[in-house]
Amino acid sequence: MSVETPTNPIPIEPSSGTLETAAEIQAKQVPLTCSGHTRPVVQLQFSKIIEEKYYLISACKDGNPILRDGKTGDWIGTFFGHKGAVWSAKLNEDASMAVTGSADFTAKVWNACSGETLHSFTHKHIVRTADFNKEGNKIITGGYEKKIRLYDLSSPDSPPTEFGELPSNIKNLIWNSETNLIYSSCEDKTLRIWDTRTSTVVKGLDLNFNVTSMDMSFDKSFLMCTAGKEVKFWDSEKFDLIKSFEFSFDASSVSILPESHSRFVIGGVSDLWVRSYDFTSGEELEVYKGHHGPVHSVSYSPDGEIYATGSEDGTIRLWQTYPGKPYGLWQTRKVEDTSASTLAE
User: Fold this and answer.
1) What is the pLDDT of residues 128-165, one digit of tens each?
2) Source organism's superkingdom (predicted)?
3) 3-state SS of 15-37?
């Protein structure tokens, strides 16, 4: 890992004499900008909360995944070793390991504490996606070979288990090992659910457009995806469609607020805006512009206090779910008392 000092900008607080109303503070969304990448950021993932901390890993076309403090965005380390764009980067359950998939035809497993490469699995084409099982002792990979492969890290030299060949390039894989299910998407407008015990498809979910992103809620109750102008949410075990929304723009990525599931955030394929919506009604809650390129990935933190966005402009931005609330590097501001008793004096 690199050992440079992080240089993330911190929001500038008003001077000590400045008074702001609560409404003014609520209206001010001041994102933290996390630099360090030199090319588009294509995937973000927050870890679970581990000993009161959590982490953020990013995949980037510059080939160097970065690990950060999730709450502040402060740089922790960079994983060096890939020789091509990194399309996927995920942490295991306790954030002790990372798995990455790259255009250099490899998937790598890393020690997330030291940055050391633990395993490197060579493929015959680009690896677009990879994920751990819950125990962190196995990984799955997928990409332009159109095959899902399952590797046992306890015997890394053994041939992987291969699932049936898919009709097109694999873009996304998620492993829900608690239910022995793997979710896959490729370029044929279909989500497939696989049973790891039989290596077979048990369910297909047809869509109107190719999938641009796929993710699960933190509690694994929702499977969600973006496809064209549509955003869809399914029950992750019964596969019932819970919610479906259609927008006026092509959506690139979606993430749902943990625990309450009361709102979700999405990025756009071709615009610079980040938008959040009410999950029940679909009402637009906030629209923010901060990036200088399309937003490729969005993700809520495990406590739901912030969400991260990764962009074509090579930066990551951290946004407060509830602007004005003291949290992390966002400090308390002086608030003008506008109560009736004060105004009457």
Assistant:
1) 999 999 999 999 999 999 999 999 999 999 999 999 88
2) Eukaryota
3) CCCCCECHHHHHHCCCCEEECCC
